[in-house]
Amino acid sequence: MTDILVARNVSKTYFDTVAQDNVVALQGLSLAVRAHEFVSVIGPSGCGKSTFLRIVAGLDKPTSGEILVSGAKVTGPGADRGMVFQEYALLPWKTTEANVEFGLRLKGMAKEQRQQITQRFIDLVGLSGFEKKYPHQLSGGMRQRAAVARVLANNPTVLLMDEPFAAVDAMTRQRLQEELTAITAHERTTVLFITHAIEEAVFLSDRVVALSGRPGRIVADLTIDLPRPRKWDDVVRDPRFNAYRDELTQSIHSNGPVNGAARAHA
Ligand SMILES: Nc1ncnc2c1ncn2[C@@H]1O[C@H](COP(=O)(O)OP(=O)(O)O)[C@@H](O)[C@H]1O
Ligand SMILES: [Mg+2]
Q1: How many CB atoms lie within 10 A of CB 142?
Q2: Which atom of ligand 1 is nearest to the CA of 43?
């Protein structure tokens, strides 16, 4: 299968103005995401996950290395990469409908086609009936659904998500995860998903890439062979789910600060 997104030897060093020292956030990260693949990148807080996604999105520049999307080098943000953040990426003064339609309007798409696509994605994320509501009139979960619809309506080559469900309650979060797997399978979306929640990554993904503590290096790249469609009730009963979770937990910890510190004292 074709590689849609390729990260080649990506490193990022920040200068910490308080400590007056360099912070190596990422070191030589290489990763390829194939067409229609759902890949999650996990790792402890501060290991460089958001840094990596921002570089893929073109919002930040790598210190060295490069990102290719459909073979073309990323030099800045682009409509080929749709991003959903933890914070609700909606325009507060626009209705659900207007938010979802926004990118299509920018593209100069004709009204009728625009409305058709907008309605399709609003229906797909389960927000029918809420077209005329403003973000403050929606629950947190509904706002994230609207954000997903807004991004998918633009038909991005790859969907980038940075801990998009971190701020919603646990029950809603599981529902949103089930919905996201159904939607991205239906739309055959290529997804790069960032989270520090290992179970979330296993549940959603075709592949999970685990990073060590800062600087983030790949310590595991695991194919998740669980049947789709996925529902939490079934997945948690599948012994493979626990096996994947345990393997990833071990990979992260054996390279993370906990064991590292223990080793240093041994
Ligand atoms: N703009 C910045 N300037 C300086 N240091 C930064 C900046 N952004 C991130 N960092 C540092 O880089 C490391 C990785 O951050 P980040 O990518 O946000 O981690 P994660 O998303 O995995 O929690 C952290 O140590 C963080 O403090
Ligand atoms: Mg982050």
Answers
A1: 21
A2: 22
Side chain identity, residue 25: A
Task: Give dist(CA 214, CA 54) in Å, integer.
Answer: 16
What are the residues whose beta carbon lies below 5 Å from ligand 2 (ion)? 49-50
Per residue in 3-53, pLDDT (tens digit) is: 999 999 999 999 999 989 999 999 999 999 999 999 999 999 999 999 999
Answer yes or no: are the C-beta atoms of 99 and 175 closer than 8 Å.
no
Chain position carrying tokens 């749709």: 82
Query: Tell me, what amino acid is at 33?
Result: V
Tokens of 104: 């299509």
How are strands ordered across the β-sheet holding 3-16? 21-34, 3-16, 64-69, 72-73
Concatenating the DSSP letter of every residue in 128-147 gives: TT-TT--GGGS-HHHHHHHH
Low-confidence ranges of the chain (pLDDT < 70): 1, 256-266
Atom from ligand 1 closest to the CA of residue 162: 21
Atom 27 of ligand 1 has which residue's CA nearest to it? 46
Q: How is residue 262 written in tokens?
A: 């223990």
| Centroid of ligand 1 to alpha carbon of 48 (angstroms) | 6
* pTM, entire model: 0.92
